[in-house]
Amino acid sequence: MLLPKDPGGPGTPKSCVRMTKKPKKPTSSIRAAITGVHGYVPPDVLTNAELARMVDTSDEWIVERTGIKERHILKGKGLGTSHMGAEAVRGLLKKTGTDPGDVDLLICATTTPDFVFPSTANLICDMADIRGIGSFDVQAACSGFVYALTIAAQFIEGGAYRKIVVVGADKMSSIIDYTDRATCVLFGDGAGAVLVEPSRKYGILDTLIASDGAGMKHLHQKAGGSRMPPTAETVAKRLHYVHQEGAAVYKFAIARMADVATELMARNHLTKDSIDWLVPHQANRRIIEATAERIGLPANRVMVTINKYGNTTAATIPLCLWDYEQKLKAGDRLLLAAFGGGFTWGGVYMTWAYDTPAARSDSKAGEGSRTKGERKGLAVRLAAIARAPFALRAAFPAFLPRRS
Ligand code: ACO
């Protein structure tokens, strides 16, 4: 299907973009299902107030134009994206009771790898004691997690792999110019990881990935790659930071996020009432709201974490799933949609595979994200167990064998 012309405006690419029209035909009855999720954000928080002391901006402007209140920043000498990815993966393995030796493949989506080589996936495996398996990085900017999940689904549906870890992780603070008010307020650091396993009942029903390299000029890092290797001059000219023409990218992001969502809905015969959750990439609250509005979804069915994490690039979608995990039920229909540098964009339509454990062993930073109501609910269930140990089964249904 040829989509309408690009949103236009000076300097925007004129090419039309082709999407795959056909829904994905299942090649087997096995689907790839997310059976666990975990996240990590570093403990250091950078607030809007602090940014307002660094550049000419204000809390008011940032909240009104982006929806961001604060973001987490990874500090500490020698700590790269792999540090956060490994934290998320170790937590995921612990939480799902997965032996590192049972993982068949690890894919890491990132735009801020620790090194050009080896891959960050490779490093995360080592740090999480996962040995001898295939691991590789996927580079699709903010759409990276959707791309990586799409790849993982092929390996599961093909039948050869049974446990794949997909990580989305970015240390955006390593490529952000903290003297540029137009970009430094947007990004944060973080990582999320999911376990993907075969299921006959739940899982990924359709995927869509797309790109348009003509969008490069609006959003890229000018130096540091093979086209312009690092020199003293590139450093002096601050060419190793994110270059973004915000207004142009904004138009494309709004159009493509909505395109992804409507395309996946159309080809799977979905209406707004048949979607339980929109899981959008978190670049700007206004983009999220415009996407939800285009498909008619009310705000209470849209995952939003941008207020506290900012744009964590490949990590936004798994961090959303981690944050909202408590609210998800087996069978919930989720629509994931992402847009990022490249340009790249993509989406996944899936059903959630499990009822969420009431208690989860999150990192300290994550504990702050549990709501008061959730903490109270947990306390009530723990008190019930203390009174009657047999209540364990009812209080923690997740301890029942998982449905597959
Ligand atoms: N504080 C105060 N004023 C600011 C700030 C700031 N932090 N940043 C920009 N401004 C000013 C500009 O200088 C401009 O002033 P001027 O009119 O005097 O020139 C004015 O605000 C408006 O600037 P715009 O860029 O038009 O602001 P806009 O409303 O578009 O918001 C933003 C900017 C938030 C960057 C928005 O364009 C956006 O969200 N873009 C899309 C980001 C995105 O989706 N990126 C893709 C994913 S990222 C990835 O893949 C790595």
Estimate the mean pLDDT confidence: 87
Total domains: 2
CATH arch. level architecture of the largest domain: 3-Layer(aba) Sandwich
Class of secondary structure makeup: alpha/beta
Largest sheet: 5 strands, mixed
Sequence of secondary-structure elements: EEHHEHEHEHEHEEEHEHEHHHEEHHH
Query: In angstroms, what is the radius of gyration?
Result: 21 Å
What small molecules does the structure contain?
A: acetyl coenzyme *A
Terminal-residue CA separation: 35 Å
Compile the SSE list and pairings.
Layout: E1 31-40, E2 45-47, H1 48-54, H2 59-66, E3 70-72, H3 81-96, E4 105-109, H4 120-127, E5 134-138, H5 144-157, E6 164-171, H6 181-184, E7 189-199, E8 203-211, E9 219-221, H7 232-236, E10 242-244, H8 246-267, E11 277-280, H9 285-295, H10 306-309, H11 316-324, E12 333-340, E13 344-351, H12 364-367, H13 372-387, H14 392-395
Parallel strand pairs: 4-5, 4-6, 11-12
Antiparallel strand pairs: 1-7, 2-3, 6-7, 8-13, 9-10, 12-13
Helix pairs in contact: 3-4, 8-9
Bound molecules: acetyl coenzyme *A (ACO).
The site of acetyl coenzyme *A has 23 residues, from helix 2, helix 6 and helix 8.
